């Protein structure tokens, strides 16, 4: 069954939900999907950790408030065997109801963050502690720092109604339009946006892409583009995405390598939102997000960087980056290739360390890559 048909089946079931255990049509879809995954050559964390005994233990469970099933969590990974992770949380309770599969995957993504670990309280520190990564502007094209937040008492994409999307968009954009000074700007709903404008914003890496098949299969694109949009300041250095993968993505961008300035601008924007909105947090997991890869402090700090010598062999670059807890993506972000030798390199870890420690780890790692590039280029 293809992803869209599967998602529609689940949606149909969802709209009539009032059950205390997964109905038989969901169990049939789960058994068939699990069988196909088991027979596939998938390298996803879902396949790695969803043993038959865990599958049998979880397949009939539903979350208390939204009746989310195991299928709601794993249908993206069942339809996309090339998933890296393969699982999402349809609502905040899913992390507890389906902890037997979420916990080992969380521990795998976030380098040993186990059941006994607790994410630390927020500590942002000062952006000024992080000097420009590349003051001579030889390698770093641009720097971006983003984090995610979910609004308390709302579920995640698969359980949101069309009215929920509208209400979230209204609530969040209302607060954003009160921002002043450097953070003041405009909210642009995706609904009705001129296609040329939309394409330009995506090509300039300001706006999220459309048609992510992993999100579609996870039932995260229903009622699209209702409730989705982007807030941008005048200088296009501060953006907020509304209802893409998460309810909120707070984004700060800089040309060049001034990580501290980008980080400082993101903190101010995030704190301004926190003043008016209540976020969904868990005592152990930190800030809750749709995908387990973004839990904790939810920060991804990245550079668009050219490394002509050590970047020649992507596999070697990924190996070196991995030693510094860094992740390598293509020029257009996740699931893309590098164009014109520009890589997106960012921190990997977001759980078990504070915001300040995450930015510090990224700053140290990128500095080490630049030093390695300098050493290689001086050998030539
Ligand atoms: P995220 O989960 O952080 O949003 P994506 O990989 O989907 O990650 O990236 C979203 C967008 O941000 C993409 O268009 C990507 O090219 C852009 N981006 C990421 N890092 C940078 C950067 N340092 N400079 C400019 N654009 C960036
Ligand atoms: N594409 C999905 C999610 C991976 C993590 N990235 C997110 N959440 N944007 C996968 O399982 O590969």
Strand order of the largest sheet: 2-3-4-5-1-8-10-9
Count every helix, treating DSSP H or I runs of 4 or more residues as helices.
13
CATH topology of the largest domain: Creatine Kinase, Chain A, domain 2
Query: How many structural domains can be distinguished in the coordinates?
Result: 2
Question: Which sequence of SSEs, written as H and E, runs from N to C?
Answer: HHHHHHHEHEHHEEEHEEEHEEH
Q: Estimate the strand proportion.
A: 5-15%
Poorly predicted sequence stretches spanning 5 or more consecutive residues: none
Average pLDDT figure:
94
CATH architecture heading of the largest domain: 2-Layer Sandwich
Helix content: 25-40%
Got a strand count? 10
**Mind telling me the CATH class of the largest domain?**
Alpha Beta
CA radius of gyration is 21 Å
Structural class: alpha+beta
* Ligand identities: adenosine-5'-diphosphate, D-arginine
Largest sheet: 8 strands, antiparallel
Distance between the terminal alpha carbons, to the nearest Å? 54 Å
C-alpha geometry: globular
What's the CATH H-level superfamily name of the largest domain?
A: Glutamine synthetase/guanido kinase, catalytic domain
Provide an overview of this structure.
The chain is α+β, with helices and mostly antiparallel strands. It folds into two domains: 3-109, ATP:guanido phosphotransferase, N-terminal domain (Transferase Creatine Kinase, Chain A, domain 1, Orthogonal Bundle), CATH 1.10.135; 127-379, Creatine Kinase, Chain A, domain 2 (2-Layer Sandwich), CATH 3.30.590.10. The protein contains 13 helices and ten strands. The strands form two sheets. The protein has an eight-stranded antiparallel β-sheet with strand order 2-3-4-5-1-8-10-9. A two-stranded antiparallel ribbon has the order 6-7. Helix 1 (3-15) runs antiparallel to helix 5 (70-79) and helix 2 packs parallel to helix 5 (70-79). It is globular and about 65 Å long. The protein starts with a helix and ends with a helix. The mean pLDDT is 94. Adenosine-5'-diphosphate is lined by residues 142-144, 146, 205, 253, 300, 302-304, 329, 332-334, 344.
